[in-house]
Amino acid sequence: MHLIGTLFGMLHSVEDSSALNLLVEDNLVDHLLMGLTYPNESIKAAVCYLYGKLYSSPAGTERLSGHFEERLCVVFLNTLGSAQTKELQVNCLGLLKELLKSDHFVSILMNNAKTEEETENPDFLEGENPLPLVLKKLLLTRDEMLQAASSHCMAAVLVHSPSRYAPAFIHADVPEFLFECLLCKSEILIWSVYCCLLLLTEERLFFSKCHTVYGIESLVRSLRGVLLLNNVELHKQGLLLFTEILKRQPVEIKLFTNRGVCIEAIDVLMETVNCPVLEVAVEAVKAVAAFLRKDHVSSPPVPYEELQKLLEAVLKRCADLSPPQSSKRHAGDVLFSVSQSHPANRNLGRVPQRQGQFLLNTLESFRNACRLAVEFQGDFMAQENAFTAPNSESKDTLSNFSEFLLRICDSLCIPMVMSYLERAVSPSVTEVFISALSTLFTVVPSMRNKFSKKLASSSFIRLTLELKARFCSVQSNPVLNHTCSSFLCSLCLNLYSATEKTRTSSQEEQEMSELLQKGLPQLNYTIAESLLLLSETPEPFFLDQSLCSHQHCFVLLLYFAYSFGDRFVPDAELFLAVRNFLLSAQDHGDCLPPHILRAALYLLAVCQDKGKALDVRSLSTIRRILDNLTDLSLVYVHCPPLLKFFLCYPELMGRFGHQVLQLWFSWEDCKQTEVEESDFGSSDQLNSANPLLPILKSNSSILLILLDLVCSSSVEVAWKVLMTLRTFLERNEDVLVCDLLRSRFLQILQQLLVESSSATLQANRNLPVLLNLLFLVQLRSKGIRELDSTDFKLLHQVCNLCGKCRPRDTDLLQPSLNFLYWSLHQTTPCSQQRAVAVLLSNVSLLELLQKVLECTWLWSPPSRPASLSSEDALLCSGWLLVASLLLYQHRYNTEVHQTLSVDLKEVLNTVIFRNKKPILLLVSIMQFLRAVLRQNFSSALLVIVGQNTAPNAAQPQPSSVQDTALHPLAMQQVFLLVVSLQNLLVHVQLQKDLLLSQAVVACLETLVEHLYVKNQDVALHVASQPWHRFLLFTLLSGGQKSFLQPAVLRLMTLFVRYQSSNIISQKEISQIIQEAAEASIAELPEATSHALHLFLSQLKANKIEKP
């Protein structure tokens, strides 16, 4: 004890070398060592304290190094291992702490003299008090101070060399007890354990021995607990440990064997991500990035919903840190604005470094989530929640998670990165961002093309090219270069797949893929440099493959960018560069692949309005290049500029116009044909919907090509051509065009009739379309005109065509009969007389008309009387044409070579009983009936047949004087017909059908006129029927109370003419005159004005004075 007291007195001068020499030379330290063998632990504690003081100074450590190695080490470890009192344990740990500062002492304490194989062998731990076991024993105590000191000493050992010393602690199962210590409340102990475990993560044995699997639950709960403490450094250290474990955990050893622990870890990460302290949130996002690994979250069922919430929290937290975008600019514009302040690091100071790191970690998390979704696509168990109840839908599926990634990328990720790029551009941030976008192409395969289109339209091609030019030139940033090149390659192939649906050439896609993969990594030029490169000409005797590869890649990129509106090169400059590129290729015999030539032609087409017109040499070059193609469709792009490009140059239109127009209509949408006019009111809207219309107006010779297409193309293409021509004819007042079309139609019809038989004509599906167009051309001539030789030849050909058809050939006969009918009516009397002669001289046409009329009684009525079938439409045309022929034959006394026969009872019964006949068919038959009545049933063309009676016809009555006078009509038929016409007028009032009302009133007028000629008493009797007055009241009781209605006025005229005073009184006549005086005649409809004129004229003729 005296010795110890003396040494205590010398401690104050231990820094003095003379005092230290005295201790060593007088062997006082050897006597001090004996104190550690004394049975009294208080003395041992005092000795340890003295040793601690001695080894706390550098001089003492150096002079006493041999003493420790030769004598003190073993005794000290025994003392520490057998210490029972806390005083001795604390002092021993104090001494150990000082010793562990020296590499040499650590090596001695850890028996570093043994080989590595011996160290990894657990048997060496069975020796006398090895340090790992001694420290482990202290961890087993429930004293948090000793546990903290022990873990601190372990960390002090490991910090010297984790790879050398960690195996000893791992074999001693120390990590298990360290994880158990995390359940305490001591911040010091938790910090020490975090530090120690963090050093152990550098050794692979720590993971292969499954210590992390054992301790992950304790770590997660510890992290949740420390979040309640106000210790930012502790939060960061715990998250750092968690991140390292997540990163370094071997793939083959699943870390989260319990799904509950995995979800608890997600909850902890969400809490830390939302921590208000940015430093903690940064570490949390790093942990999220490491957590998003398949082996970490693949325990079925995969918690997709929780992962969505976690990822959304990360992105929203990062977005909250970023200021909003200053404007809705495209990606290329954003980068361009930043690049104006080159070099890159000039703006980096404006963005806090920690914020940039946060964004980088966030993007890594998002990229890992995308990779996770792709990896799960090959795992059937991960597709959806296997524990979902039957007949119920689960939102916890891979499909929903993948769609979420796509949505949140669009709504949060891309805007956030664009906001960052407005202020600075970081290669690491852009590399992760572009990599994530590349992965997204395969996350939702069904949305790949749509996503690619959106990226292209948002200038991501330009953005990526700018990134490569700025950061990847001179072989710098190879990772970023590879990422950008892969992204551009995938984007272009996706766009090719989306836009070239009709071109399913796997070989072309493979060639394009190889070109892009080979050329894009070297294409690290600015846009201006690349444009110059495009115009560059290779050496005359040396074809530079590298130059060609660069040119072809750049042309493809421009093509896809321009296809989606990203026109980042001035049009005039690009037009000139592409033209020079084609000239150079042709001059040097470079055979351009179809996809490159297609892209070049498209770029020329879209830039032609801003560039100068191509000269003769350029057009000749393009023509030679295209002549070498086996099929023009290989380079065709369905867009208005390309169509205009081929049609605006005569040199190209004459050679390729037919093929281009064929391709244009083949690719056009069929739905556009019928609704084209109704959907677009203005001329500009219509031109934008059908861009061929303004081209046709400027170059009418294209119409001849279109007519060839009608005859030589498929029905679908021919119908589209017809719709375009119809719209063009209706919108453009050009008679010369109609003359041109009629002449061409004549040639086509003559050729078809000469080369085809009846059977082949009926099988020709394009002929109906051609006939429809012929009728449309005729409709285009609104006024009366003289028929020329072409018109009469067309009449002759159409009549011959009709004669070769059957009544069932409605698609051929309908437009043909319409054409014949219109030819009779829209011409002068002189031409009309010749046209009637042409029609009546064609016996086969009249025989066909006879069959068509007979079909009226043979064909069954449709299920809905309001609908007009193709058969009914043909019947309408047939009856109207026959009615016209009866009228004009009688007028011009034309010679008849074939008569028509009609059963009068069938005609009357059709009007009387209607039998569900369509309205238009009734109107047509009434027109025929009027023509017959006007000729008093006497015509050289028509034979009236009366013996065949329909089943529902009225039974014949005994002959009377009236029947004899009215022959072939019977009195009963007359009354039935009048009543039917009255009923039809009431029906018209309800249906608001002006056409039918005019036809009914006209038929009633003609009937009374016929009766007046045959028997005046019968006519006056019919005109004076009391029901007529009731009919007038019914017509006036509808929605329109006025007398100024066409049907009412014409009925009034009829009653005034035949002086039916019981039907119309002087009061009604005065009221009509009063309304007419108050009305503005100019504002009245034409039909009403005409009916009023007839009424007033009839009043004047009957000399009825105004009251």
From TrEMBL:
InterPro entries linked to this entry: ARM-type_fold, Immune_Signaling-Apoptosis_Reg
Gene Ontology biological-process annotations: meiosis I
The record's listing under SUPFAM superfamilies reads:
ARM repeat
Domain of life where this protein originates: Eukaryota
Which protein are we looking at? Meiosis inhibitor protein 1
Question: Origin organism of this chain?
Answer: Zonotrichia albicollis (White-throated sparrow)
Organism phylogeny: Eukaryota, Metazoa, Chordata, Craniata, Vertebrata
